[in-house]
Every structure is written in structure tokens, then in C-alpha cells.
Amino acid sequence: MTMDMSRYLGLFISEASEHLEALSRDLVQLEREGSSSAVDSMFRHAHSVKGMASSMGFEPIAILAHRVEDLVDAVRQDRSRLDRDLVDLLLSSADALLAQVRAVADNKEPAEATALLQQLSARVTTITGHAPATTRVARVTVLKPAATTDAAAEPPANPEPAAAAKAPEASAPAPDETTRPPGAKSAPADPRPGSSAGGLTSGAGAEAGAAAREPRPAESLAHDVAARPAPGLELSGGLQAAAGGALASKPEGEARAPLQRWAVQLRIAPTCQVPGVRAFLVHKRLTTLGTLLDLRPALEELKAGRIPDGYIQVELETSVGDTGIHSALRNVAEVEVVSVKAAVAAPAPAPPAAAAPDSARASAEAGGSRTVRVRTELLDYFLDTVGELMLATARLREVGKVLPENARPELEEGVYRLHTLVKDLHDKVMSARMTPLSLITDRLPRAARDLARRKEREVDLVITGAEIELDRAILDELADPLLHLLRNCIDHGLEAPEERLAAKKGSRGRVLVAVRRARDRVIVEIEDDGRGMDPAKLKAAAVTRGLLAPEAAARLTDREAFLLSCLPGVSTAKDVTDISGRGVGMDAVKRVVESVGGTLEIDSERGRGTRFTLRLPLTVAVVHLLLVEVGDEVFGLPIAKVVGATEADGETLSRSRETALLPHGNGLLPVHALDALLGVPAPVRRGLRPFVVMDGDSGKVALAVDRLLGQEEVVLKPLSRPLDLLPGLSGVTILGSGRPVFILDVPRLLSA
Amino acid sequence: MAKRVLVVDDAIFMRNMIKDIFASGGFEVVGEAANGLEAVEKFKEFKPDLTTMDIVMPFKSGIEATREIIKQDSSAVVIMCSALGQESLVMEAIEAGASDFIVKPFRAEDVLAVVKKVLGEV
Known about the structure:
- The complex is a heterodimer of chains A (752) and B (122).
- Chain A is of the alpha+beta class and 752 residues long.
- Chain A folds into 5 domains: 5-184 and 202-217, HPT domain (Four Helix Bundle (Hemerythrin (Met), subunit A)), CATH 1.20.120; 257-342, Alpha-Beta Plaits; 376-435; 437-533 and 572-617, Heat Shock Protein 90 (2-Layer Sandwich); 622-751, SH3 Domains (SH3 type barrels), CATH 2.30.30.
- In chain A, helix 9 (275-289) packs antiparallel against helix 11.
- Chain B is of the alpha/beta class and 122 residues long.
- Chain B contains 5 helices and 5 strands.
- Chain B has helices at 12-24, 36-46, 62-72, 87-96, 108-118, and strands spanning 4-8, 28-33, 50-54, 78-83, 100-104.
- In chain B, strand 4, helix 4 and strand 5 form a beta-alpha-beta unit.
- Chain B is globular.
- Chain B starts with a strand and ends with a helix.
- At the A-B interface, helix 1, helix 2, helix 8 and helix 9 of A face helix 1, helix 2, helix 3, strand 4 and helix 4 of B.
């Protein structure tokens, strides 16, 4: 029976990644607080990853995880060895492991981390005084990246060499189980919800090939016992009672039978991976039967797995007879009773007491939550489908309007019911998509540590409200911007320790990431207590780069001026560092935040610090639109960006060069004709016409439209190729009338 | 009647794999637990014929959980799920009353062979 490991690939990738991210978090926490629970938790994470990787046959991952486990274990024994370099090394290892897992996800071979392995074992050697044991990853199941068909449907490439791998005389596995071809027995029902045919491996693992199998020679498995402290192994009468488990078949009334000596010869199956433990189990069983008078090899040798050819000689004094001996060992796997012969009888101690079942003892809270894991793509699919359902319902309602009066009530009742159900379903699907922000904020402490170290800053990062939930789709988008803002705070915001001291501040900078709910929005604030931003410098930079007219710059409030830092190319940083000076910039942060329907604000005070405020919608899928008509076309404008609407006579507007200017508040806004921007033919309008005032990238703008059609809550659907390449379109929706409507991204439209 | 199994492991990955192995062997997996605390509770709840027990788990180790389960029911059959390198821990678990053990990475046929042997089905 060959197990098809490819079906576990998706789960391996997600769970191993979680463990590795948690490992990094623990490390940062450990370095900061030195808590011993963090070390234990780190050990578990490394250990879990090792176990999973070796099960999947990903040897490089298993080996590296094992070495990390070794080092963590060494640190566990002697906490004083934990220093910055060691944390760095472990963090790099966690990163390398993550990279390996990602490689696997991309259907690539995980790279061997030779240099890291050497460093890790060097540290282990320094701390423990001996080199770590060679990693014993049993190469049982090897996933071969194969370009062939779905593994699940295919018979194993290498038929299981069961006969060769199993010593024929040993531990006789159930023949019907080992010889049955895969699939002959009813295929195991997939217990995971949401993993429809091959679904689990979608993307990452769909190509992962048939699980080929390499039998591992038993000899190559090292037998030494690991370096962990051995628990007290002396047997006592009390402990014997505990071994009653599999001995239920022990004959009754044995106490009255005469004591007799038996010479027992046993053999541990050569295929046994841990003969030492196996021998120990046998020893344990036999001691429950009576007194062990002789044991060869000696117990310590047995435990260490030093058993020549697997043979064990025991002289046992017991009253259970040879049948009792046989039955006590019958249920032990991988052990063959070679012979049981009578030896000379002798007086003996009392037989062991029977185990007394203790009444059940309650033990703390059991996990009451019943949760399952669902792939994000599946949630996307649910949402998409519910969106279609909403659209179909709206369409039905429209159709009903043209029916004769007397036919309407029944249909309308049905449509109403459908609408309620679909709305309810939509709410449930949305709530299933809600994910705590900790999913992305959990990475920040690690990032802060690395940044602070590179910049030689001292930083306290405080995160509050990370339990607040947001739509997973928004979270995914937000990860990079949040990281960039943090970088910005540490890199540009916070001063060097000596500069801080000179400014009468504490040498340690502080960055606060505070998340809170405000009605249907989530507010994320990232705040530092650094040097603050200089609005005058920002204005000057924008003017120098030709992004802003000097007079327009003069009119900007400080708050507006801070937002200039989001224009490409405007930055007051004196030097471009490798930390936040490249890659995703403030302009990208603002764009992403707005693309999910949020807004970005910046407040800053010189010498006191800077605060970035992100106001985010809970979900992206449903957006409020202002529908406008241009010519014969209808377009949607996100209400979130609409400041207001007004009417004016286009002919009478004042002009600056070619651009018409609409009076708004105390100022004038540049007017853009939507028909011209979109290339939609529209008749020339005279007299009053509506204008929509919207937030643009560099201040408000007015859009000239032909008609305001009203507001609508719609389900946003992303555009697919090639429409998504058109700048200025952020999505599409279908109105109840069945009419598709494009949703406009006005800032992009203006800059296109 | 199919023998009833409780699967204890802190990794969903492992639990799923073990569950699949048992399903393929005609066993009924009646419950699962992600740590030692849960394991003891679930054991009480389900009274399984067999429990597979991971060793390194949060809140309460598999060894501790085994000790408590055996204290509840001395005839409980607990099979430790161990990894190479955990020999001394497995021995500790055997002291605590574990009936047998299997070694990760698991091979379905090995797991089923051990289990059937322990349950006296061979």
C-alpha cells in the first residue's frame, strides 16, 4: 500500500509555514523577554516541521529543521548561551526553511542549506560539547517532482517491495494489508472539507508526482539514543501496574500457579527502526510477568540499541507459564519469540499487583472550538458565487417588473425570500473570510528587530488590537504596505540613540501599531516618536520636481503636504538607504490602501513623531457606488472617494489655461470631463450639468458627467485579462438590469 | 465492528495522514485532539479502542497525557507516534503505560501492522 503523499502537500506547505513563522516570532520574543515557554514552543515548531518534512520525503528541510531543533534543545539546557548571533543564526535558519517550503510549493527541489547546517552544528558542538547526531531522515517516501498525471489516479511507480523490506520471519505484518494493491480497498474518503478532487494540491502540488518509494536499508538507520536526558528508567512494582494495557489477555489466577524459570529467546525484527525502544518495550512486558534473572544484552545496551543481530536472551521467573509469556509478547510488533524453554525453578518474589483503574480525573479545558481549515481560493470561490447569486436575484427582480400585474406577487415573494437567503449567505461567507490582523502584524516584531539592528537603532514595537478582523483579501494586500510603514518609521522617523538623547528623548525609539474598529471601518495607526516630517521641505521637493506649482504648494495645509510624500519621487530622506529607499514606496502604500477602498492620512509634528492612519473597509467585495451617466454609458464611482456632487454651468466656469475650474469650498478645483477621459462620445452640453467632486492623488478634482443616476451597493468583480490592463478601471459589476458597469479608479484614470 | 481510534497530534498534517491510514485499514477514527489536555478529555468522551499519541505537544505532552489516560483506564491502548531521535522519550512513554509506538515518517503498512498486532488482530 503506497501512500500518495501529494495529497498532503498543500497542508504541509501551509502548516509548516505557520510553524516557521511562529518559530521566528518566538525567537524575537525570547530575545526580548527570555521566557522559557518561548524555547519550548520553538522546540515544538522545529520538531513538527522536521516530522512533517520527513514524512513528505523533503530531506533538506527535515535535516535543517532537525539541526535547528538540536540547537534549540541545546539552548533549552543552557539559556546563557543565547546571544544575538545565535538568534540571528536561528532566524536565518527559519528563513531558509521557509524558503525551502516555498520552493516545494513552487514544485522545485528545496535547496540544501549547507553553510547554515555547518554553522548550526558548530554552535551545537560548542554548547553541548559534542557534535549533533547525524540526521536520520528515513527516506521512506520520496516525492518526485514528475511532470506526469495526477498521482492519486495512478498506480505507484515503484511497486512496494514489501517482501524485500520485511524480514520474512519477523513480525509478520497482516498479509492482506500489505499485499492489497492501492485502491483495492475502498478508497479512504477525504476527510477534509474543501479538498475536492485534487483540490488540496492546487497550484503547488497538482504536478507533484506519484509518490515513489525507496526502501531504506535498516542498517543505515543509526541506533544511538538521542542526547536528551534519559528519564529514570528503573522499574518498580508501582510502575509495572501501569503496563497492564495490552496485557488484558493475561491468564486469570496466575498468582496461584507455581513459579517457574523460563529461558526466552527473542529477536527484534531487522527492519525495526528503533530496536532499542523495541527491546525496552519487550523488557517492560516481561518484567510485568515476574522477575528477570538474566538479560543479555544488558538493559543499558538494549536501550542504546546495541543488540547483535537483534537477538535477546532472557531468563525469567514467572508463574504465567510459557503460554503466558507467549501471550504477553504476542501483541508486541516487530518482535519474534524464537523459543521459550523451561529453566530451573527457584523461589521467587510475589507476582506484581494488578492495576487498579483510577476514576476519571478531569483535566482543564478541552478544545471546544470545532474548526476546519479551508483554502483561501475556496473562500474566494464562495464569495464569487454568492456574488453571482446576488446579481441573479437582482436580475430576477427586474424581470418581474415587466410581468403582468396579477402575476407579480408570487414572483416577488419568491424573489424576496431568495434575496433574504442570499444576503444571509453572503454575510456568512463574508464572516468566514474575516481574519485577524495578527496574521500580518505577527511578522512585524521580527522585521523591526532586523531593521533596528541594521540601522543601529533601539526600538520598542508595541502592537495593539491585532485580534481585530478584516477580510482576508484586504489583509493580503496590506502586508507589504504595513511593513513599509514600519520601515519608514524606523528608518526615517526614529533618530539615532545619541540624537534622541540630545533631543531629551529616551534612547529607545518607540513604534506603536494600533488597530481599532470604528463602525464599519478598521483603523490602523502606525506611529513613531521620532523626528517628524517637515511640510515645508516636502512642498519644496514637490515643486522642485515639477509635481506642484509653487502657488498650489503654498495653499496646501500641513496635512496635505505630508501626503506629498506619497507622490513618486518626493522624499525628504537625505540618503536613500537599502531599507526603505527602494522597492515599494509611499506611493505604492497609498495606492494599495486606496485600491482596497481605504484611505491614508499622515499626521506629523516636528520633533515629536509621525502617525500614519489607514482607514480600511471590513470587506472589499461589496462596494458602494455612485452611478453616473456619460453619453450612453453608465460608470460607477466608489463612494469612498466621492467628496460631493454639485451643479454648475460649464460655460461660465473660470479657466486656468485649458483647464476649467469649479468653485468648491474656498477654492477652485480642476475640472475633467469624464467623456473625454474615457473616450466616450457624448453630445456637447449647454447650461447646468452635474459635477462629481472626488479625492485625487494630489488633491480634489471635479468630474463633469451627464447625469447622476444614484447610489448602489454592488458586488465588485475583478477584471480579467486583457481588461485589467486598462488603466483607470478597478473592476466591474452587473446591475439588476443585467447591465455591466465598469468601476472607475479616478486617480489612475487621471494619471494615465 | 470497526475498531475506534482517537488521533492525537498537534499538527493537522499529521492527524490527516494518520486518519487516512486508519481509514484505509478499516478503522473508524472517532475523534482527534491537538494537545495533551484535549487528548485526555477526548479519551474520556470517546473511550476509543486505540489512541495514537504524539509526544511533543503544547500544554501537555503526550507522555503526560498517556499517564493520565492509563490512570483512567489501565487497559487503554495508547500507541506513541515518535520520531527518530526521541528514543528516550518513547521509553518514558512506555514507562507511563504506552502499549507500543510507531516511528515517523510513517508508512501506512507499518502503522497498520503495529496497530493490528497490538489489538491482537493478527
